[in-house]
Amino acid sequence: MATEGEKGQVKLLGVTLSPFVVRVYIALALKGIDYEFIQEHFLHPKSELLLKSNPVHKKVPVLIHNGKPICESMIIVQYIEEAWGNKGPNLMPKDPYERAIARFWAAFVDDKLFPSMQAALLGQGGQLQKAVEESVTNFLLIEEALRTNHCFAGKVYFGGDEIGLIDIALGGLSAFIKGVEKATESVLIDPEKMPLLSAWMDRFCKIDVVKEVMPDPAEYISVRRARMISPPTAN
């Protein structure tokens, strides 16, 4: 079991506006772990440290603990729970079944939900409409899980009374979700159709730890969308 790290022992390679980096911010803050943040850049060449630490995907976030790199945001969050399990809150359920359910829905966020929102961000016309509809369908599945799944129904967060793995997986994307809604002039989380998910999002975003680390990428997202969908300039 790891002890509380000093900044020299725990480093985080990341980009401030990345929703995946935000997940790690939240997990580290909840556990009260001191760390050194090393800023990477979207448009600049990748640093030698990043390429050395994550030679497979060559992307952030990367957590470096005692010189050893851990890659991929949700793997990092689970590592934080296992390495600093003696520090509250618990980010993973103790029950094996509930732990499996948490991993399932965290994977759903990355494998289904995020790609559909990304497609909406970059889509136009019929492609945009299709991607928005797919995103809404995915959010409705989460709404249904909040309503019927005994692991979540009637609880404050997906993790129960405390923020857990799914809260971090989905909540880390909350600013990105709002940014996509604004940039595409669409509604992805309708409070009338998704009252439980909408209420959860409001609660999550009001948590002090979350407010302290959550960026506002709306302007960046709008600019990025404008650049991606603009026709190429003729020579």
From TrEMBL:
What are the UniProt keywords, alphabetically? Transferase
Broad enzyme group: transferase
Reactions listed under catalytic activity: RX + glutathione = an S-substituted glutathione + a halide anion + H(+)
A Pfam family per the record: GST_N
* GO BP annotations, alphabetical order: glutathione metabolic process; toxin catabolic process
EC number(s) reported in the record: 2.5.1.18
GO cellular component terms, alphabetically, are: cytoplasm
Q: Which residues form a coiled coil?
A: none
* Limits of the GST C-terminal domain: 95-232
Can you tell which superkingdom this protein's organism belongs to?
Eukaryota
InterPro entries, A to Z? Glutathione-S-Trfase_C-like (IPR010987), Glutathione-S-Trfase_C_sf (IPR036282), Glutathione_S-Trfase (IPR040079), Glutathione_S-Trfase_N (IPR004045), GST_C (IPR004046), GST_C_Tau (IPR045074), Omega/Tau-like (IPR045073), Thioredoxin-like_sf (IPR036249)
For this chain, the family text in UniProt reads: Belongs to the GST superfamily. Tau family.
Q: What is this protein called?
A: glutathione transferase
The species is Pinus yunnanensis (Yunnan pine)
